[in-house]
Amino acid sequence: MFRRMFRRGVRVVSLLLVVLVGLSGCAGAGALGGGDRVLVVGIVANPQMKDAIALSRGFERDNPGIRLKFVQLPENQARAKITASTATEGGEFDVVMISNFEAPQWAANGWLENLRPFMDASPGYDAGDFIPSIRDSLSYRGSMYAVPFYGESSFLAYRKDLFAKAGVTMPERPTWRQVAELAARLDDPAAGVAGICLRGKPGWGESLAVFDTVVNTFGGRWFDRDWNARLTSPEFRAAARFYVDLVRAHGEVGASSAGFSECGTRYAQGQAAMWYDSTVMTSTNEKPSDSAVVGKSGYVPAPVESTPASGWLYTWALAMPRVAPDKQAAWRFMRWMTDKEYVRTVGRSLGWSQVPPGSRVSTYRIPEYQAAAGGYARATLEGIDSANQRATMTGPVPYPGIQFVGIPEFQDLGTRVSQQLSAAIAGQISVDEALERSQEYAQTVGKSYQETR
After folding, report:
1. What is the C-alpha separation between 250 and 374, in angstroms, rounded?
2. Secondary structure of residue 322 in the 3-state scheme
3. Are residues 142 and 164 in the same domain?
4. d(CA 90, CA 20)
5. Which of 178, 182, 220, 445 has the lowest CB atom count within 10 Å?
6. In terms of Cα–Cα distance, which of 154, 88, 141, 135 is closest to 114?
7. Measured between alpha carbons, how far is 46 from 49 in angstroms, rounded to an integer?
8. Element housing 258 (H / E)
9. How many distinct structural domains can be found in the chain?
10. Rounded to whole angstroms, what are the CA distances from 147 to 109, 144, 281, 339, 453?
11. In a domain, 390, yes or no
């Protein structure tokens, strides 16, 4: 069924992406300079990726004749640009950073190179060391089509010092109702400290990544098993009202335009008492050069309502477009950035708190990393381990994914719905208005699947 789902809408999406390609303007892959082979790498401008760029001279030193050119963009822009180039075989990139949302779909569409032969021909790379759930999420028909740079679930960070000062305690496994009560107690506008930071920035991979986990644990779903849209169901409404009310009452200033990066900056500068988001947040929170709250945070599992767990499963990974001209050179870079030795390089060069987490089992056996990540390593692995639909949803759904709906149309559908959510957070429309409009978008998508069952 999933292969049919992945194939659906490809022609429409591709036609739309032609426009994006024309607008994006990127130097073509393989441009030559000084006799070197230039690898163009499309990458998301997240802290861990910036660390890789900072360390990339080591790769160039050890691989004479190959130079790297990084095209790094904010998440929403990177998704659009990389999707456009890959879907239309534009050839702008030799290597692209994608997620477990794209990898199986793009593999089914024939857009990506099967990486199994490259891994098999790379002694010591040890693909079996990848965390199984992460490895499986990047696979199609038993082969990996992307290799993980880091993996993540979601959890809740909180300021232990502020909690102690307020005389309140964080439960070991909090509910969302308890989190809302704590946010109200800790909200201190006079001191410039929000009770909690939650994403409100439009984008199916921005605000919806967080919001969908709340929907799931409240018992909501995007579609029932017959592809009927359910965005105006009582459960979905309850989740949306809760989320919007919480962030409007006790969230950060300008929440409707705050994403992962914005919340990360606010929390690291002491401007929020709690932050619910990706487990990879620790590389920001615990980085001495960037954070004012190093060592002051506790980490607990993603809050729940009606499910035993609610964390998501996500990975940023490297893939090779099928039309990449120099696949061996591309793989050499991909191997470098996702190998066990890269983890040790980051630890020795930048600090063990900067190590990309959640991709390799062996990372969690390194003594130096165990010492640095003692406060959150276990929480990260537990979150990844419990991130499945059985634990995070109250009933079956016809689509793969936890914090996303794993169908091609979700890039557009999710972005449209996130815009409605953001407008509700900004106070421009009511939650009910946002959901009524969102329901209309979802019904159109659902009907197209009903027609082909």
Report:
1. 30
2. coil
3. no
4. 11
5. 178
6. 141
7. 5
8. none
9. 2
10. 18, 7, 21, 10, 33
11. no
Report d(CA 202, CA 421) in Å as an integer: 8
Owner of token pair 């809740």 = 156
Residue 197, Cα to own-chain centre: how many angstroms? 17
Co-location of 42 and 15 in the same domain: yes
- Report the C-alpha gap between 389 and 110 in whole angstroms: 27
Encoded tokens for 4: 């049919």
Q: Which of 350, 383, 416 is the last residue of a domain?
A: 383
Q: State the residue range of the domain holding 205.
A: 154-312+400-450
Q: Cα-atom radius of gyration of the chain, to the nearest Å?
A: 21
Strand residue runs (E) in 128-280: 139-140, 143-144, 147-152, 154-159, 274-278
Q: At what angle do helices 234-250 and 207-217 cross, to 10 degrees?
A: 130
Size of the chain in residues: 453
Q: What is the pLDDT along the chain (453 residues), one digit of tens a residue?
A: 444 444 454 434 443 443 343 333 344 455 444 468 999 999 999 888 999 999 999 999 999 999 999 999 988 899 899 999 999 999 999 999 999 999 999 999 999 999 999 999 999 999 999 999 999 999 999 999 999 999 999 999 999 999 999 999 999 999 999 999 999 999 999 999 999 999 999 999 999 999 999 999 999 999 999 999 999 999 999 999 999 999 999 999 999 999 999 999 999 999 999 999 999 999 889 989 899 999 999 999 999 999 999 999 999 999 999 999 999 999 999 999 999 999 999 999 999 988 999 999 999 999 999 999 988 999 999 999 999 999 999 999 999 999 999 999 999 999 999 999 999 999 999 999 999 999 999 999 999 999 887
Shared domain check, 351 and 302: no
Residues 6+ apart with CB under 8 A from 99: 205, 314, 315, 316, 317
Q: Report yes or no on 364 lying in a domain.
A: yes
Pairing of strands 154-159, 274-278: antiparallel
Cα 429 versus chain centre, distance: 27
Residues 134 and 161 in one domain: no
Report if residue 136 sits inside a domain: yes
Place of tokens 């032969």: 117
Residues 304 and 427 both lie in one domain: yes
φ, ψ dihedrals at 36, nearest 5°: -90, 155
Same domain, 328 and 307: no
